[in-house]
Amino acid sequence: MLDIKLIRENPDLIKKNLEKRQDVKKIKWVDELLEADKKRRELIASVNELRKKRNDVTEEIAKLKKQGKDVSMLLKEVKEIPERIKQTEDELAKQEERVNWYLLRLPNILHDSVPPGKDDKDNVVVKIWGKPPKFGFTPKNHLEILEGLGLIEMEKAAKVAGAGFYYMKEELVLLDQAIQRFAIDFLRKKGYKLIQPPYMLRKDAYMGVTDLDAFHDVLYQIEGED
Question: I need a surface site. Which of 36, 141, 176, 208 has the fewest CB within 10 A?
Answer without folding.
Answer: 141
